[in-house]
Amino acid sequence: RRCILNRIKANVAHTKIELFVGGELIDPADDRKLIGQLNLKDKSLITAKLTQISSNMPSSPDSSSDSSTGSPGNHGNHYSDGPNPEVESCLPGV
To answer: Which of these, 33, 50, 16, 42, lies nearest to 92 by C-alpha position?
Structure first.
């Protein structure tokens, strides 16, 4: 998680990252485990969900709904280009 946040230059204090394998959330307590210790199949797709967290988010429902509808399209197109070797090199080996 830390390596992914560093790669996209996200503010660690204001960004939450959730990792999913097959739609199932990977517990943050498992972050220090090797991929081989997570009971994954030979080929698994790991999906990351980035959420911006801030103390003033609920202040304006209109602005939060606008940003939530625009963000997935922008980020989805940027990160859907396929595997990124630089990010994958940050992941622990099997």
So the answer is: 33
